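Q: What residues go here?
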């Protein structure tokens, strides 16, 4: 927890000012003339009308939630959204963008007309590039991705094929219009038999937070469209620069999803990469760096081949050197290719070598059921490696497992692990008892059937669930274990914090309409909501859903992380759960632990398990805790600023968001304040 002595440091960190080493702000827009803007406006209106007609037709023939309906709507909506976003945000960074926007609108209308006139999806080419879309589970926004199909795809659409997932680098002029326009003009490569999937990933966020979920959802969307062509054992990950940073963290966070990972350049640490960053940061911020600092997950390279790259003259070669240094004492191999006398780009010979090695890895495919695993994690969000699932005892400390399937029993050694889930080998399909040796002690476990959601496609599987109780491992049924974790208020899966973690899942903002207890607090809440709305639209390329507290009903509260804006006087949803929050809040004062603050000039911001749903969180008065200056700085700045909770002292100023951070911190593994706080 951080208190008053670190206040000045916290102010700089919260605002994002003073620590931005580089500016990646987009260039000044070059506004098109009024005639072109009017043409774009009319095109948008026409496309919106056609989209409405398509929606009505598909709802009548298939129903709104039918997968075919959602697929078609997404494939059209990405064009409307692209034109709308570039217009709304005035992102005319290059003189050709207005014409590209008109062509993007035309492509969307062609797709709509195809459905309205023939009822057929006509836009999947026989080969080459095509842009597709899906609806994000995070904010229901339409998000694009592009696939490049081999020449014989139309002749053999059911042939199992390797899938190469490509993560783009940072581009300050990137928009949905640019992505769609350029990707669709890439010619088919006659020498490639694999499918390439290029992720948009909401632009420039290093595939963090909702951008991370976008990568996983884009691949899953393709797999659902063409399940016969999708080879889950031959999914390759590759990226350069910002894409390299994304490949590092996605490859090491999810080592079981890929048969080969090739990060080029990028970054793998925050300290040492962000210039002028305070060291150390407040303790809770240091802890939260372990969510995305890929170097902390280096040991997971044991489970997936890594082909790293950096130019000899590129400072970002250090990203690979960091991982290499961690792996050397562990005797875990990693291939590092250095481009001779090369700065921040691929050396042609090096790229050829990378592609050859990844082809070799894809030829072998990922192992079906590895005999041995080594896995480390620091957060409940990253809890899976092949046939092993874990729950850390303490977050942000290394949670390690070494596991061996001998063909007869499981031998597992753990560190900082409270729950193990072992998905069973095929040999144990009919077993009544599963023999395990956990931390040197034998455990006879009984098998259960659970839904495995840790791979590309969910499926029921046999598993044993082991819970550590007073130092002893015991077998339990998954449903009983889940209920116990909920009852005991354990941080788990998607209910772990920090505040920013709520925005990797579905979320809903609820704004109060009643009479606020304190006007200054209400001003802050309204201003923070507006900032969240503005920054989410600009930098995360979606729209937040905001509803009034008088319009809320149970189904909404049960199916999303609920972000409550206001105070208990203004927001009746917040008032209804006030006695279940870790803060005492009256008209006169706030009390968090042993400390008391005036309610007239202080506001609590926090995340906490939702009283409305078992696997959701509530957030009070906060969106993302990093802001515009951080989005427009290096992507390494997109780390949590406020942990699980904070108390802000509001100042009288023209800007209602001006405040001091009085205290902030992380709850323990049971959502309790540390002793003495």
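A:
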């Amino acid at each position: 927890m951080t208190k008053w002595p670190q206040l000045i440091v916290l102010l700089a960190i919260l605002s994002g000012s003073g620590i931005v080493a580089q500016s990646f702000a987009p260039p000044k827009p070059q506004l098109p003339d009024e005639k072109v803007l009017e043409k774009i406006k009319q095109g948008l209106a026409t496309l919106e009308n056609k989209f409405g007609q398509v929606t009505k037709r598909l709802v009548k023939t298939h129903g709104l939630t039918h997968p075919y309906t959602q697929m078609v709507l997404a494939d059209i909506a990405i064009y409307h959204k692209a034109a709308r976003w570039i217009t709304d945000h005035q992102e005319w960074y290059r003189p050709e963008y207005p014409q590209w926007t008109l062509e993007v609108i035309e492509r969307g209308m062609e797709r709509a007309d195809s459905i309205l006139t023939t009822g057929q999806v006509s836009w999947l080419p026989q080969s080459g590039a095509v842009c597709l879309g899906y609806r994000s589970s995070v904010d229901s926004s339409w998000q694009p991705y592009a696939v490049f199909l081999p020449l014989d795809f139309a002749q053999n659409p059911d042939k199992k094929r390797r899938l190469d997932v490509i993560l783009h680098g940072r581009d300050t002029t990137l928009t949905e219009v640019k992505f769609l326009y350029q990707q669709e003009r890439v010619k088919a490569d006659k020498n490639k038999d694999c499918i390439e999937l290029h992720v948009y990933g909401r632009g420039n966020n290093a595939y963090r937070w909702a951008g991370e979920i976008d990568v996983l959802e884009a691949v899953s969307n393709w797999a659902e469209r063409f399940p016969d062509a999708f080879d889950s054992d031959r999914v390759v990950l590759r990226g350069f620069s910002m894409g390299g940073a994304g490949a590092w963290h996605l490859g090491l966070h999810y080592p079981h999803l890929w048969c080969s990972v090739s990060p080029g350049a990028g970054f793998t640490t925050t300290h040492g990469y962000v210039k002028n960053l305070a060291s150390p940061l407040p303790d809770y911020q240091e802890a939260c760096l372990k969510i995305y600092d890929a170097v902390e997950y280096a040991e997971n390279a044991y489970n997936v081949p890594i082909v790293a790259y950096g130019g000899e003259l590129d400072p970002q070669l250090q990203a690979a050197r960091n991982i290499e240094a961690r792996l050397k004492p562990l005797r875990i191999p990693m291939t590092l290719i250095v481009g001779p006398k090369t700065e921040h780009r691929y050396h042609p010979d090096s790229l050829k070598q990378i592609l050859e090695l990844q082809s070799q890895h894809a030829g072998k495919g990922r192992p079906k059921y590895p005999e041995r695993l080594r896995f480390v994690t620091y957060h409940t969000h990253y809890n899976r490696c092949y046939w092993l699932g874990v729950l850390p005892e303490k977050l942000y400390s290394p949670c390690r497992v070494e596991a061996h399937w001998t063909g007869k029993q499981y031998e597992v050694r753990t560190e900082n692990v409270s729950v193990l889930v072992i998905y069973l080998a095929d040999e144990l399909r009919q077993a009544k008892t599963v023999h395990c040796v956990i931390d040197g002690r034998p455990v006879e476990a009984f098998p259960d059937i659970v839904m495995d959601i840790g791979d590309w496609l969910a499926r029921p599987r046999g598993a044993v669930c082991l819970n550590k109780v007073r130092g002893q491992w015991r077998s339990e049924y998954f449903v009983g274990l889940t209920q116990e974790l909920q009852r005991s208020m354990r941080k788990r899966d998607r209910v772990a914090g920090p505040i920013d973690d709520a925005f990797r899942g579905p979320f809903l903002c609820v704004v109060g309409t009643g009479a606020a207890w304190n006007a200054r607090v209400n001003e802050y809440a309204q201003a923070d909501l507006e900032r969240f709305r503005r920054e989410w639209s600009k930098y995360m390329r979606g729209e937040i859903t905001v509803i009034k507290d008088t319009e809320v009903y149970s189904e909404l509260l049960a199916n999303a992380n609920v972000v409550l804006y206001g105070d208990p006087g203004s927001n009746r949803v917040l008032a209804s759960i006030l006695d279940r929050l870790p803060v005492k809040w009256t008209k006169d004062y706030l009390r968090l632990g042993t400390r008391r603050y005036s309610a007239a000039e202080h506001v609590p911001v926090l995340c906490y398990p939702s009283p409305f749903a078992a696997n959701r969180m509530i957030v009070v008065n906060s969106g993302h805790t990093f802001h515009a200056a951080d989005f427009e700085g290096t992507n390494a700045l997109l780390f949590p600023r406020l942990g699980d909770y904070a108390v802000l002292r509001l100042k009288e100023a023209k800007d209602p968001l001006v405040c001091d951070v009085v205290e902030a911190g992380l709850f323990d593994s049971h959502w309790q304040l540390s002793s003495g706080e």
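A: Context that may help when evaluating the design: DSSP finds 15 helices and 29 strands in the chain. The longest helix spans residues 34-61.
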